[in-house]
Write a structure and sequence with these properties.
- The protein folds into two domains: about 230 residues, TIM Barrel, CATH 3.20.20; about 70 residues, Helicase, Ruva Protein, domain 3.
- It is built from 14 helices and eight strands.
- The protein is an alpha/beta fold and about 350 residues long.
- An eight-stranded parallel beta barrel has the order 1-2-3-4-5-6-7-8, surrounded by eight helices.
- It is globular.
Length: about 350
């Protein structure tokens, strides 16, 4: 198994599960290669991501279903790639009853998968029992992901979580499949479940209303243990909660998150930006929000970041510590000169 620490060792109540290589495959027609899987897994691990999900967007076995296109690689190829790449992070896959099979879960376990997330419509939790049992028997951490959670009330969702707990699930996740929940909705779902069940609760949000990152923060404030993200929000429909902005927002909200925001900005820009028609988000815009630096100051920060070959995102943070209103060139130069050029990246990594 990849993880050097237990998957249940939640860091101050929150871990990040990056689903770029799974949910993001809906965007590129399931064309992530084994080589890309290795590269992105390693980059996410180096950036401090705890949990990494790989494979066909619809999960184990979906590539053999007439309902979906086949992926660029087989399920087993993705398993092998993730197992080779992850030495610190925990990796796993998704499985939807009827598309995947218990044998597919056992195959993932044989390749060292740390977790599997069994997807089921929130109204059909019973369909997950056999799959949860298979994962437990294989020694895997298993989450019951309640797809289309918004179809039931928070109280009924909590009852479904109790059912999943009886089946032996280690976690249950709210899944905002349509991206229609607002933070107050998320708070109610999490609080209702945590008040009635012992299972840790996760949150998987989509960004159709532009609220996915805010919903992740609301989920964690309400007691969620894991939130799902993807680099630059690369995911199905309106996309997922962006890893970069979600981690930044959680940090600013006072939560201790293991991931490194500037490193995530570079990883997303390098590996996901080119997959987007518009080149993806500008990582320096996110860095500015993270550091509380107005965009009008980016030119002078870039000027001295280039001159002293330092990371502009790190320079923004230093400038903000000294002055949140202005960015005097002499201050920016002084701070650029004080930074270690070996820390972080360079201007080229953001352009």
């Amino acid at each position: 198994m990849g993880g050097s620490t237990s998957i249940t060792d939640f860091r101050d109540g929150v871990q990040i599960l990056d689903a770029t290589l799974r949910d993001g495959s809906y965007v590129n027609d399931f064309n992530f290669t084994a080589a890309q899987t290795k590269t992105i897994c390693r980059a996410l691990e180096a950036a401090g991501i705890d949990l990494i999900e790989v494979g066909h967007g619809a999960g184990i076995g979906a590539g053999r279903s007439p309902a979906f296109e086949s992926a660029a690689e087989s399920d087993e190829d993705y398993m092998i790639a993730a197992a080779e790449a992850c030495t610190e992070a925990n990796w796993g896959m998704f499985c939807f009853p009827g598309l995947g099979s218990p044998d597919g879960i056992r195959l993932a376990a044989s390749h060292g998968a740390d977790f599997v997330r069994v997807g089921c419509h929130v109204t059909e939790v019973e369909s997950a029992e056999e799959y949860i049992n298979a994962a437990q028997e294989a020694g895997m951490f298993v989450s019951a992901n309640m797809v289309k959670t918004n179809a039931v009330s928070p109280s009924k969702f909590a009852a479904k979580v109790q059912t999943a707990e009886e089946y032996g699930a280690d976690m249950a996740s709210i899944v905002d499949s349509a991206g229609g929940l607002v933070p107050e909705d998320v708070r109610r779902y999490v609080q209702e479940a945590t008040s009635r069940c012992d299972l840790p609760i996760g949150f998987h949000g989509h960004d159709n209303l532009g609220l996915a990152a805010a919903n992740c923060v609301a989920a964690v404030k309400a007691g969620a243990a894991v939130v799902d993200t993807s680099l630059q929000g690369y995911g199905r429909s309106g996309g997922n909660a962006p890893t970069e902005t979600t981690v930044a927002a959680l940090e600013k909200a006072g939560f201790d998150v293991s991931a490194n925001v500037p490193e995530l900005l570079r990883v997303g820009h390098k590996h996901v930006g080119p997959l987007r028609d518009n080149g993806g988000w500008d990582p320096l815009d996110i860095a500015g929000g993270y550091a509380d630096v107005h965009s009008e100051h980016i030119p002078v920060i870039l000027e001295y970041a280039r001159e002293y070959d330092v990371d502009p995102a790190l320079l923004m943070r230093e400038v903000s510590k000294h002055d949140k209103v202005y960015a005097p060139p002499d201050l920016v130069e002084e701070l650029a000169e004080s930074l270690n050029a070996e820390d972080g990246g360079s201007v080229a990594d953001y352009q």
